Backbone:
């Protein structure tokens, strides 16, 4: 497990690395200068389960806004910086809990040093981020194209440059929209990097393709014990990213808590609106984060109870009448219209684990 051996890094009131739980990040897509809209989006993300938020800081106004935003939110905020080292310095002075830079586009070594010195002065970590889209020309020439090896070399070059400046409060990320290249790059980097890794598939796409690419990429990487924070990048409302990230972590057994909803795929035996019911149950389940149970939603009363055996509780729909099931045993017949309210009542009264 690589993640157990990385340095522990503190971001605001959270700790990552060294075997700490894997945290979920997202990024706002409001104008950071718009404090009200950004705070509203961060509150929505917090409610969904976001652990760390990142906002872009492209202007001095955005850096000042970051300070205002920070006062109104409850999770650490990371300033995302591109090109202008002065924005990194302004963001740090305005209270950023971490800075994300690609030293390759910050400019001269002196400019990188200015950012590093400021981060040291304020005692905050830096994430060194390398993306396949911005890999240096000389590395692309060396390997003939963008490769996993090149991404790793670029990331380690930057890490070593910052280490030589006497700074090691670091998090590293290497991202590619090519899922298998991204996986390979993490496999190569993890044994060489003592710092926590932030993992994500960049430019993964819309909610549909982004979820599939992220689940595959993050799944393959996290399952090897690599990765300390994650982001599912989706072209859409960032709140969707959180549910996906939680589902990925839960599926891999890397995060406990919350209800797992399983539902049958429906077949010719289905005689209720199971798709609608399953969606309603999923919404209902989101409000019971303190429970760590499996809920089954099955489409028929014949096979449903048997197929729901592994669930703690389930409902199975029939013609006009459905069943309430616990551990595969039918405990009650319920009018079809009451299935959801009955399940809600059961969850409300479910003993805390
Ligand atoms: S539980 Fe019933 S409706 Fe659902 S797939 Fe199985 S047999 Fe079909």
Residues:
């Amino acid at each position: 497990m690589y993640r157990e051996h990385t340095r522990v890094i503190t971001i605001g009131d959270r700790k990552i690395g060294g075997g700490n739980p894997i945290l979920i990040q997202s990024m706002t897509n409001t104008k950071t200068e718009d404090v009200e809209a950004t705070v509203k989006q961060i509150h929505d993300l917090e409610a969904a389960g976001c652990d760390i938020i990142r906002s872009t800081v492209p202007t001095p106004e955005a850096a000042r806004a970051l300070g205002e935003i920070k006062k109104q939110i409850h999770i650490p905020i990371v300033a995302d910086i591109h090109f202008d080292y002065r924005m990194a310095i302004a963001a740090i002075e305005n209270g950023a809990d971490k800075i994300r830079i690609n030293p390759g586009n910050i400019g001269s070594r002196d400019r990188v040093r200015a950012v590093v010195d400021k981060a040291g002065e304020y005692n905050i970590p830096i994430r060194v981020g390398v993306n396949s889209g911005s890999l240096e020309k000389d590395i692309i020439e060396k390997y003939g194209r963008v490769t996993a090896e090149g991404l790793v070399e670029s990331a380690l070059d930057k890490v070593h440059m910052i280490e030589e400046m006497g700074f090691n409060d670091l998090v590293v990320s290497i991202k590619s929209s090519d899922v298998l290249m991204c996986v390979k790059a993490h496999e190569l980097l993890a044994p060489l990097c003592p710092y926590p890794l932030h993992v994500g598939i960049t430019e993964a796409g819309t909610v549909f393709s982004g979820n599939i690419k992220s689940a595959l990429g993050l799944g393959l990487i996290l399952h090897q014990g690599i990765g300390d924070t994650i982001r599912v990048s989706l072209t859409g409302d960032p709140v969707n990213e959180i549910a996906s990230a939680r589902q990925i972590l839960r599926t891999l057994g890397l995060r406990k808590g919350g209800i797992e909803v399983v539902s049958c795929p429906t077949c010719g035996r289905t005689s209720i609106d199971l798709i609608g019911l399953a969606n309603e149950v999923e919404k209902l389940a989101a409000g019971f984060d303190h429970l760590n149970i499996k809920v089954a939603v099955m489409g028929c009363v014949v096979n449903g109870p048997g197929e729901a055996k592994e669930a703690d509780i389930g409902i199975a729909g029939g013609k006009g009448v459905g069943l309430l099931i616990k551990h595969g045993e039918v405990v009650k017949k319920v009018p079809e219209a009451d299935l959801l309210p009955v399940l809600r009542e059961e969850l409300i009264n479910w003993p805390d684990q």
Remarks:
- Residues 264-267, 269-270, 298-300, 303-304, 307 surround iron/sulfur cluster (CB under 6 Å).
- The chain has a mean pLDDT of 94.
- The two ends are 28 Å apart (CA to CA).
- The chain has two domains: 2-251, 260-348.
